Amino acid sequence: MITKFPKNFLWGAASSAFQIEGGWDEDGKGMTVADFNSFKRSDRQADSKVASDFYHHWKEDIGLMKELGLKTYRFSISWARIIPDGDGAINQKGIDFYSRVIDELIANDIVPFVTLYHFDLPYALVEKYNGWEDRRCAYAFERYAKVCFEAFGDRVKWWLVHNEQNLMIRVDERMNITESDPWKADKMRAQMDYHMFLAHALAVNACHEMVEGGKIAPAVSSTCTYPLTNRPEDVWAAKMNDWFKTNYCLDMHYYGEYPGYYMRYLKERNIVPVMEEGDRALLKSAKMDFIALNYYRTLCASYLPADEEHPVGMRAYRGNEVDFDQYGYCRDEKNTNLAASEYGAQIDPMGLRIVLNDYYARYHLPLIITENGLGTPDVLTEDGKVHDDYRIDYIRGHVEAMALSIEDGVELMGYCPWSVIDLLSSHQGFRKRYGFVYVNREDMDLKDLGRVRKDSFYWYQNVIRTNGEI
Ligand code: BG6
Hints:
Blueprint: E1 10-14, H1 17-20, H2 33-39, H3 54-68, E2 72-76, H4 79-82, H5 92-107, E3 111-117, H6 123-129, H7 135-152, E4 158-163, H8 165-168, H9 172-175, H10 182-210, E5 215-222, E6 225-227, H11 232-255, H12 260-268, H13 279-285, E7 291-295, E8 299-303, E9 322-323, E10 330-332, H14 349-363, E11 367-371, H15 389-407, E12 412-415, E13 437-439, E14 451-453, H16 455-465
Parallel strand pairs: 1-2, 1-12, 2-3, 3-4, 4-5, 5-7, 6-8, 7-11, 11-12
Antiparallel strand pairs: 8-10, 9-10, 13-14
Helix pairs in contact: 3-5, 7-10, 10-13, 14-15
The structure holds 6-O-phosphono-beta-D-glucopyranose.
């Protein structure tokens, strides 16, 4: 590798509150949707009650980050730690906790990169408003964001609003959608999505007003979809998959309005969200400063027209081949050119270069990768080591792809692999690990929660030390 990464390149690592913190009800924290969902699986896998116990290990863990050489740490604040019921009293103890973490990071020369909302809506807002379905949820979010800007804005300059709105909105559990009628569920989903866009715009504007030198952006779930063949219909299906799942969201943030194909979908499905006067001006006024993207894999698709067996609005993915939830265009296919992780993610460093170049060409905004990594059931050997050469291979490939994109002219600010230490996988507990540091616990056995540096820790330390000259 010959490319030099920019001098101030933000080599980092990432996490999220409910996946790393534990202390789920300590010091006044309220329950979140993420807690609620993880408790449903408590009888068979780890939940968010203890997770990696960062709530009690934060000093030790930041020490490890320092040793790793991190320039930045991307983490999220739990809304329910700051405002336990979402829109009521402020919990000073929650503010104090994050203040300590932020101070410790800065004392160790690690730039805090903070996400406001990573899948963990305060559960009280579901009970009060059915969450994002109600416009008041957007105002509650604005207030929470302002509390964070006020409390931490003197020290935190980099902010992310929602983590993966574009993916979250498609996972019913995360949105607490229990409606079984597909049309009603789609209608609810469209309204929730719209309120999240409003919340995003409110937070972006508040950040710019309140945080001196503050920069703020969405963190989108990114991928690119390849057509199975060069049949125009397959190409169309692949493009549609990206447009409906990611691009509409970035376009909405950038232009402040739905792209035409998306509005057409909303109209034809008769689920156009309720919009109020003034919304359009608000959405258009909020200018994101950069784009954060989470990238793990690419997809492959073939065209499948809607018919009686596969009607528009059918939602079947993950395990089923048909992906029909938006418009009836797409069937998920296996890409035989790519290896896949044990959990089926198609590993594709070149796809990252495609995505980076594509996003930069479309928006000309600086980019940062806020998640990228390989989930595996790592093994702690008897001599206390974790030989995760597969993770090193994965990250090396993606670092090389980033270097090529930078050579292509992409303004890439940083890289935060998922995850800094092992944490609760959003669906597979501790059987699926991503960290540079092994956390000694199993799903149903907390053991000693000790921290063990994996082989990838030393490898990534060297990447950072040499500024990517691997
Ligand atoms: C991202 C999420 O979509 O994927 C993370 O932002 C999540 O929260 C990560 O952990 C990996 O997914 P999983 O299901 O393997 O934990």
